């Protein structure tokens, strides 16, 4: 009996020690970052007692507060402000459904009946607390986890290290002011890369990247050849945004797949969000294009076992440079999805992939809040992401089909781009894809790229190729004359051939 009790005691002690060791390991692995709740108390009281302080209800979000009950209190105060109501404890209880502690807010007001003269300092410290906590939960925690893993991909570690540094970039009222000397020194690297010919980021589609023979610049009666000069500037450069648009069936996805293939062959990393067609089908398309196989044959299974092996090997080879990003934006029951959360997820994957080009097809699939204002703000955030991560963002987006069908000229225009004006605003270049055979002359197997916007280059521009839809290939690219739909006859009335800023020599095709 004694021996059994002794054995049970030893087992109990061993279990307690094991549990203690596990708890110690968990505590050692966790990064706990304390915050100062006093800053939150001061700000909550200030927006109630001081009208001038209520501007912070718009600029500070509820998730900036970590003190017990503070986030619910802030949401209630934001709702009161938004509805134009006056503050009182009963209104707080009613607006919040009892989630906000009205007595807690009243206590803060009794302790601080006036907003302090250094309120800005408390706001700044509140924002700094959020920056520290979120960095610890996100980039810092991920970096620590990755650096402990000997099998971690070096490119992921480098991306995470950049994220850690960026998560602490600038705090304080003057954090966005630039020192002239620091600005010039940083930009000098960009200028040097351009001068030495290293800042070149082609799509790989020759006629789209550069002018061809017969393209001339004609100004003041002087003709100058444009052959070999860049058409798209700065093309797929880091931190810039390209919008590829067109109606359904205009080859947007096919051309995006071709660009991804050509980038991989140029040894650049591509992250592809194939959110319309799916990852497997898009990788299959890219591999078939690479092999020069008929897309129809692949689709209907007209291949033998050896050819299947060859196709799979090509997909694996391309997979070393092209990574696919599955659609992660399905709604969880009872959870309200917001654009900010989805864009955070996108940025996390972009940073982890270490990609040079991120293709999103279709980008709008990531937006759950689709009002013009929400969509515009989401696009601005994506533009900022491209700049922060030094990645080129290529967004695939639809045109309004009804708008196109109502016009005699069916070519894309900026006005026919679906959604808010933000799509045009954030894009450094817009390429509209057009297949004339979709609307008339079904035997016309040509494909046109209409450059609808260039922030740094000539616009509008137009290129045409012979299109081989069976193989997703284009060839014999050349410049074509382009006037915006509706401008025919207007421009011709005051521009002659000699005064147009550039033209293509007749017979130059």
Question: How is this structure best summarized?
Answer:
It is built from 19 helices and twelve strands.
Main features:
DNAb Helicase, Chain A; Rossmann fold; three-stranded antiparallel sheet; 46% helix; elongated
Write the topology of this structure.
Layout: H1 2-29, H2 37-49, H3 56-59, H4 70-82, H5 89-96, H6 102-111, H7 119-147, H8 154-167, H9 180-195, H10 206-209, E1 215-219, E2 222-225, E3 241-246, H11 252-265, E4 270-274, H12 279-291, H13 295-300, H14 305-319, E5 322-324, H15 339-353, E6 357-361, H16 372-389, E7 392-398, H17 401-405, H18 422-426, E8 429-434, E9 446-454, E10 461-468, E11 473-479, H19 490-494, E12 502-504
Helix pairs in contact: 2-4, 2-6, 2-7, 4-5, 5-6, 7-8, 11-12, 12-14, 15-16
Task: Please describe what this structure looks like.
There is one protein chain. This protein has 509 residues and is of the alpha/beta class. It folds into two domains: 37-167, DNAb Helicase, Chain A (Orthogonal Bundle), CATH 1.10.860; 209-504, Rossmann fold (3-Layer(aba) Sandwich), CATH 3.40.50. The chain is built from 19 helices and twelve strands. It has helices spanning 2-29, 37-49, 56-59, 70-82, 89-96, 102-111, 119-147, 154-167, 180-195, 206-209, 252-265, 279-291, 295-300, 305-319, 339-353, 372-389, 401-405, 422-426, 490-494, and strands spanning 215-219, 222-225, 241-246, 270-274, 322-324, 357-361, 392-398, 429-434, 446-454, 461-468, 473-479, 502-504. It has a nine-stranded mixed sheet, sandwiched between helices. It has a three-stranded antiparallel sheet with strand order 2-1-12, with no helix packed on it. Strand 10 and strand 11 (473-479) form a beta hairpin. The longest helix is centred in the first third of the chain and has 29 residues, at 119-147. The chain is elongated, with a radius of gyration of 29 Å.
């Amino acid at each position: 009996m004694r021996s059994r009790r002794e054995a049970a005691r030893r087992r109990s002690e061993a279990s307690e020690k094991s549990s203690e060791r596990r708890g110690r390991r968990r505590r050692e692995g966790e990064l706990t970052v304390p915050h100062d709740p006093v800053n939150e108390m001061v700000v909550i009281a200030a927006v109630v007692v001081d009208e001038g302080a209520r501007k912070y209800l718009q600029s500070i979000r509820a998730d900036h507060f970590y003190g017990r009950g503070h986030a619910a209190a802030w949401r209630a105060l934001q709702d009161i402000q938004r509805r134009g109501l006056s503050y009182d404890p009963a209104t707080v209880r009613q607006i919040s459904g009892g989630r906000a502690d009205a007595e807690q807010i009243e206590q803060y007001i009794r302790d601080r009946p006036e907003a302090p003269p250094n309120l800005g300092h408390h706001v700044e410290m509140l924002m700094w607390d959020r920056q520290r906590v979120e960095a610890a939960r996100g980039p810092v925690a991920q970096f620590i986890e990755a650096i402990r893993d000997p099998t971690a991909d070096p490119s992921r570690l480098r991306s995470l290290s950049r994220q850690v540094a960026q998560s602490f970039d600038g705090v304080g009222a003057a954090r966005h002011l630039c020192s002239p000397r620091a600005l010039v020194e940083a930009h000098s690297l960009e200028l040097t890369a351009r001068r030495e010919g290293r800042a070149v980021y082609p799509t790989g589609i020759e006629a789209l990247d550069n002018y061809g023979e017969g393209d001339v610049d004609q100004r003041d009666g002087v003709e100058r050849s444009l052959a070999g000069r860049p058409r798209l500037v700065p093309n797929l450069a880091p931190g810039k945004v390209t919008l590829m648009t067109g109606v359904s069936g205009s080859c947007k996805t096919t051309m995006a797949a071709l660009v991804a293939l050509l980038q991989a062959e140029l040894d650049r990393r591509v992250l592809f969000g194939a959110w319309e067609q799916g990852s497997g089908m898009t990788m299959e398309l890219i591999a078939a294009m690479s092999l020069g196989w008929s897309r129809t044959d692949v689709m209907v299974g007209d291949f033998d076992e050896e050819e299947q092996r060859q196709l799979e090997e090509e997909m694996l080879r391309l997979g070393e440079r092209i990574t696919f990003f599955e659609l992660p934006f399905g709604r969880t029951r009872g959870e309200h999805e917001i654009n900010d959360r989805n864009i955070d997820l996108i940025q996390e994957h972009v940073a982890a992939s270490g990609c040079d080009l991120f293709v999103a097809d279709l980008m709008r699939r990531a937006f759950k809040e689709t009002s013009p204002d929400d969509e515009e703000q989401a696009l601005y955030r994506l533009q900022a992401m491209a700049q922060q991560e030094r990645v080129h963002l290529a967004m695939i987006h639809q045109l309004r089909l009804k708008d196109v069908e109502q016009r005699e000229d069916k070519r894309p225009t900026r006005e026919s781009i679906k959604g808010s004006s933000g799509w045009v605003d954030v894009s450094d270049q817009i390429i509209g894809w057009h297949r004339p055979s979709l609307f008339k002359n079904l035997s016309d197997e040509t494909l046109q790229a209409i450059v609808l916007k260039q922030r740094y280059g000539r616009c509008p521009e137009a290129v045409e190729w012979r299109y081989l839809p069976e193989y997703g290939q284009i060839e014999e690219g050349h410049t074509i004359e382009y006037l915006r739909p509706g401008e025919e006859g207007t421009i011709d009335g005051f521009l002659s051939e000699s005064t147009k800023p550039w033209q293509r020599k007749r017979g130059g095709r």
